[in-house]
Amino acid sequence: MIYLLNAFSLLIEIAFDALATLFVLRLLAEAGRADFRNPVSQFVYRYTNPLLAPIRRVLPNWRRINLAALLVCYLIMLLKRVVLFALAGAAPHVAGLLVLALAELLDFVLVFYLVLVFGWSLLSMFGADGYHPVLRLVEAIVAPLLRPLRGKMVVGVLDFAPAVVMIGLLLARILVAAPLFDWGSRLAGGL
């Protein structure tokens, strides 16, 4: 029975994470000022806008951050935690759920950035087509992270800026997201 429960939990996590990916992509694409004419950007906009448009009337953007998309991402992570706790038959404290959802969202965004920076650096190393819509969108998303280190970490023809950014993202997961997870787990358990 435990194996079936674990398999069902995995499927639930995959479904919620796929949905969260769409809204995180919208959030980061807007923050990075991705080209709207890009077909991938249009796809993301088309499938996120029906939910975000009514929320944006109440919760407008702050600078370049789409607060509506951020709220939806947080609610997706919160709902995911509620469903997983219900599946396990546990009744956590509300404060713990709220902190766990925040930790989950932060960790998700950090891992998302980590994958994008790694993929972008790998593709650019092999000379991929710079006009491909996916590569242009990824470049617009990772550019704000890489911009402060551009040209400062070059040794010969190798640019170590992506490696430094990835190490920073991994450290943020260890030093910020993991303690937040621990704190949320303690609050959820009532400790």
From TrEMBL:
The keyword RNA-binding does not apply. InterPro entries: CCB3/YggT. This is YggT family protein. Coiled coil: none annotated. Keywords: Membrane, Transmembrane, Transmembrane helix. It holds the Pfam family CCB3_YggT. It comes from the Bacteria. The chain crosses the membrane at residues 6-29, 65-88, 94-116, 157-181. It comes from Fulvimonas yonginensis.
